[in-house]
Amino acid sequence: MRLPVKATVKQVRLLVFASLATVVLSTVALLDFYAQNAHELEGPARVIRYAENTLLIVALAATLVKACLPKIPLWRVILMVGIGVFVFYSYGEFKALEKSLNLRMIGRLPFLWVAVSVAGALVALALLRRPAAVPVLLILSIAFAAPSIVRVLLMKDHHSVLPAPDDRAAVAKHPRISPNIYWIVLDGYPRRDVLQQRLDTTTVDS
């Protein structure tokens, strides 16, 4: 028996809203990272690749959960996975909480972090039962990501002015911002006569 048109439209809308909310929740950590470190990156390509891989994992996880729980509506499964990934990417906050509470969980923290992520997903699955929660969660997720979105949009083509790596003149004119890294090698510098003897050459450039 075919579902009424209104019911079908409602189900499609739920799936679309749930998918959008999950996309935002799953990638907001990467968006925040890019917004805070754009001046040190050559472009958004690597972050976009990480986001694509994350969404692929989300899709695979939702498919597996739906296969294991066929009676659960798909929109609830999608949101469950999205919230679980959101909690999983909140490792920095979890680490800060450990430090502020002066807890000693070195070695156990990664396992506890994964357990908290799974628990968050299960709690979301248990609580998100009403379809009315889907648009609310979508609005909240967009509001959560809004500061980073605005920050990225306000960047005035930051990476478009960066020169190509092989353009030495442009690089000299627009130097890249690099971290302060000093590489000190304490061996491997023999005298000129030793180099001549080892390499069997008459002249060795300094």
What does this structure look like?
The structure is a single chain. The protein has 206 residues and is mainly alpha-helical. About 3% of the residues have low confidence. Helix 1 runs parallel beside helix 3, helix 2 crosses helix 3 and helix 3 packs antiparallel against helix 5.
Q: Any key phrases for this structure?
A:
206 residues, mainly alpha, 0% strand
Secondary-structure blueprint:
Layout: H1 5-37, H2 45-68, H3 74-88, H4 91-100, H5 109-127, H6 133-153, H7 168-173, H8 192-199
Helix pairs in contact: 1-2, 1-3, 1-6, 2-3, 3-5
* Percentage of residues in strands: under 5%
What's the SSE pattern?
Answer: HHHHHHHH
Oligomer: single chain
Low-pLDDT stretches are 158-164
> What is the overall pLDDT average?
78
Largest pleated sheet: none
Question: How would you sum up this structure in a few lines?
Answer:
The chain is mostly helical and 206 residues long. Helices cover 66% and strands 0% of the residues.
